[in-house]
Amino acid sequence: MPTYDLLIIGGGINGAGIARDAAGRGLKVLLVEQGDLAHATSSASTKLIHGGLRYLEYFEFRLVAEALAEREVLLRIAPHIVWPLEFVLPHEKHLRPAWMIRAGLFLYDRLGHRLFARSTGSGRGGSSSLPHSRRVALDADGCGAGLKRDFKVGFAYHDCWVDDARLVVLNARSAAAHGAEVSTRTRLAHARREGGEWVARIESRSGSREVRAAALVNAAGPWVKDVLQGALGVDIPAKVRLVKGSHIVVPRIHSRRHAFILQNPDRRVIFLIPYEREFTLVGTTDVAMGDADFEARISSDEVEYLCAAASRYTERPIAPGQVAWSYSGVRPLYDDGSRDPSAVTRDYHLLLDEGHEGREAPLVSIFGGKITTYRRLGEHALEKLSRRFPGTRAWTHAEPLPGGDFGGLGFTELFDDCVRRHPGLPAPWLARLLRRHGTLADAIIGNATSRSGLGEDFGGGLFQREVDWLVEHEWAREDDDVLWRRTKCGLHMSAAQRSRVRDYLSGIA
Ligand SMILES: Cc1cc2nc3c(=O)[nH]c(=O)nc-3n(C[C@H](O)[C@H](O)[C@H](O)COP(=O)(O)OP(=O)(O)OC[C@H]3O[C@@H](n4cnc5c(N)ncnc54)[C@H](O)[C@@H]3O)c2cc1C
What we know:
The chain is 30% helix and 24% strand. By secondary structure, it is α+β, with helices and mostly antiparallel strands.
């Protein structure tokens, strides 16, 4: 029977991040994901690497400081898929007074930098690579583009954008490069403790097999309790709160680069974010759920809520008929007893179970978390397991994710260089390829000197060479894996073009 140090259940951001960290520490790791990587919550986020300005209202200082420190780390190790984004907050004094917003932004500009300096050993306290917040005149400097003229002043600050699903895939790739085995479309069906180890039964299309592991990590996200109670038969007191969040994608409301953070009379905030060049992403909602829904879908009430919340501010109203695409995910929050789904803590809790008298094979279960803090969560998970795996060291803050080794260049310099070296290929397509793959883009282009050298053109900026790469190196198997997770090309294609990609992939299978 194959034996591993660590068996990780769940190929969302937390499972993939822990797999990378553990494999890089020299542990023998198996990651099992019942669907595709990132097919659940980790591809359905608002895609922000952020401290979470609104969490300051709930006094979540630890979370905000850690998240802001992580923003710096992720900008450095994944500069192709993480980049700065300016947010404009139109001021409405009856919702939150200016002094409160100023105080929040003052704190936001400063929190986290000391933690960042400590975690990287840079000794550089008190500075961020992003500009500080400022007050802006919405009618004067373009910050109000797309908004009603009634909004005159606002505040601007920076956070970061991330391609969430690609962050998961790149962590899995890095884990595999460090020796981890990554098995997608493989479900943990059952596991029991035996002789100081876990014996687990995992099932895939090719059948069922048993493996042994010294320790288990339950990173099943919204299914964390189902795995505990069903597959593992372990009872721990923590509860998970399932809160659905949905987004809509509509034709873009302005052609500038900044996003908006809009206050709503229910005290929630809604983001309007430039998306995939031609669109604006609008989200999100907070809807309490009973069960983890594998196929979470937006309801018509949520569509109307998002359209109404955005239209309070936008020059031209946004109507449900304009929605080009939508997606929904379920937040697996740690249940802190809050009544309001928006107020439930977004911080994470890792629970260690060592069985009878604390002497059996360890199990770490993950409750809550953010995309932003996944890397630190991974380090904490390995700290929890340090009795079982002593003497390992944190390392993931220092090594770039695959394609993120820019060698000191900025994205623009990398792009200019790429265009110079590939004069026969369309520059806008090169920019998108670089955003998805960073310095690995050249390996996909290979010896192609023109579009025809890239193989079949599926439309929407997707060529055969990239599809083959995604299948060979990134565990892509089905059309959704390619069209909606590893790329967003699906958004730019017709139904017939998407169906051609499906046929091509079933041909390969
Ligand atoms: C609407 C919304 C907006 C958000 N916005 C942001 C944001 O802007 N920034 C941010 O930092 N965070 C954001 N988050 C939070 C973030 O997305 C989540 O915290 C994170 O994705 C959770 O990752 P996970 O790995 O724990 O769960 P998941 O991504 O759900 O992964 C768990 C995986 O476990 C697998 N699994 C379950 N059971 C089994 C089994 N028996 N065997 C094998 N596999 C199994 C599932 O298939 C699933 O893929 C947002 C969340 C939502 C819902």
